[in-house]
Amino acid sequence: MKKAFYLLSVFIIASSAIIAQDISKGPTKTNVVESPKLVVGIVVDQMRYDYLSRFSEKFTGGGFNKLLQEGYSCENNYLNYVPTNTAPGHASIYTGSTPSNHGILNNSWLDPRTNEVVYCVGDSQINPVGTGSKAGMKSPNRLLVKTLADYNRLHTKMKGKTISISLKDRAAVLSGGFNANGAYWFRGQGQGYWITSSFYMDKLPKWVMDFNNSKILDNYMGQWSSLLPLESYVESGPDDTEYERGFKGKNKPVFPYNLLQLAPYNGNYDIIRATPFGNSYTLDFAAAAIGGERLGQDTDTDLLLVSLSSTDYIGHNFGADSKEVEDAYLRLDQDLMKFLNVLDKEVGVDNYTLFLTSDHGANQVPHYLISQGLPGGYFKEATVKFELNYFLQTKYGDTQLIKNFLGNQVYLNHERIRSVNLKISEVENAVKDFLEATEGVKLALTRSELLENPFSEGIELMVQNGFHPERSGDVMYVLDPSVVVYAEKGSSHGSPYEFDTHVPLLFFGFGINEGKTTDKTYSINIAPTISELLNLPMPSTFTGTVIKGIVKKE
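^ that's the sequence the OP posted. Answer follows.
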C-alpha cells in the first residue's frame, strides 16, 4: 500500500512538472485525434457501387460528390458473407463481424430449438410504443454481440447518446444495438408514425410525438414526377418495360405517380416506402432527432445511425435499370446535401464524422438479362423442395427427413433420421449431391464441411462466414449468378456475386483524410475504423480490421 502511494506521489509530481514545462513552451501536438462530437452512419439500402459513377454527372456538388471529393472513398469495398440481405447487412456493419459471429443469419430463419421460423428482431416479450400494432414488438434479442454504438455508450459511461432510425424495424434495431437511447422505425398503414418498443422506452419523447403530429408526411403524399426531364435519364432503360411491377391501381409503371390516389391500394401510408420521399421523410426525422436529443452538443461523442430503406423498396419494385431507381438516387443526392447543411449548422462543420455505405447491392432483372442473351433465371424453391423430398423417399423410403427449406438452407429432421437408423452425415451428402445436380445451383456445402474445413477464400469462405453452428441448417447452397428466388419482375439480392457484394464506402468530416483507396476493404471494417477514430478499445468480437489511411493522426 505504501509502495502504491509512493509511486502515485512520484507520478503526480512528474506529471505536474511536465505540464508546467508544456505550458511554458505553448501547445504541443499529440499523436491521437480528439473525438468528433457526433458520428453519423448512413446505410443506403440496396445501393450498388456503380450507382456512384452511373449517376455522377447529374449529382449536385453538395451530396454524393461532396463526400467523394472532400472525404475518403473505399472503391473496392465488399460484403464477405452470404446471404447479402438487410438484417445481416446492418448487423455486420455495426458489429464489425460476420453472421458466423453476430448470429443474424438472414431476415428470418428456422430456430432449431423450437422448430419455428423466427424474425430477426421479433420479440413477443415486449410491448409496442407509439402504436397499438404488433409492429412495435421488436428488440435486438437475437443479436449475439454488442455493436459499435454499445461500445461507445460503455466508453462514455453512458453519456454519449445513440439514436437509430429507419423505415425498417430490423435496420433500426440492429444498428442501434442493446443500449440505444432510441431506435425508431415507421408504422405505415393508416397511422404514418415513427414508433419504437418498450425495450427502449415506456413512451415516445415529446420531440417524436411533435414530429408525428406535425403531419409532415402528408406533404409527401402528392405526386411523384421525375426530378429532371425524363428524356435526360439516359443512364436507365425505358420508362415502360415488362420487367417492372409498379404500384397496384395503376396500369403501367410509368411516371407520374399520384400517391394520394394510389395509397388505398398500396397500404395507405406504406406507399411512401417505395418512393424517394420515404428517404426524404427519414432524413427529416433524423434532422429533428439532432435538435430533439441535442446530439453533438457536448464532448461525449453521440451516434446518429440512419438507414435509408426506400431505395431498396424501389429497386425491388422497378428493377435496377429503371428510371424510378435513377430518380430515387438523384433525389437522394439532393436530400443528402440538405442533411449535410443541417449537420453543418446544428453540430458544426468541423464537429462531426459521417460514413455512408450500403447493406447490399442488387441484380439486374433476370428476365431482362435473358432477353439480351445473357445468363439468368428463377429458382422455384417449392418445386425443388418437393423434388428433394421425392428423391429422399426413393433413396431411403421416408418422407419426413427434411424439417424445413428456407433461405438457401436445408434443415434436416435429426430426430427422424436417427429413428430410422440413418447417419446425419450420409443424408447431408445425399442432399448436397441432389442440389448440386439441380439446375440453377452453383454449389452446396454441408454442416460437416463447414465445421471441419476452415476455408480461406472464394464463395466457400463467404458461406462459412454466414454460417452459425447453433442457428444454421444442415446444407447451405448458392445459386448461379443472376438466378434468384424472387418474383419475375423487379430486382433482388442475396448472392455472393459482385452486383450484390460491391457497395460504396465513404468517410467524411472530422478526423478523416481526403483521398481514396483501391485496396480491397470489407463492410466489417467500418466499426473498427470508427473505433480507432473514437479511441475505443478494440473488442475481440470485431473480426474486421481498421482500414489504414482513413483516420488522421495529428
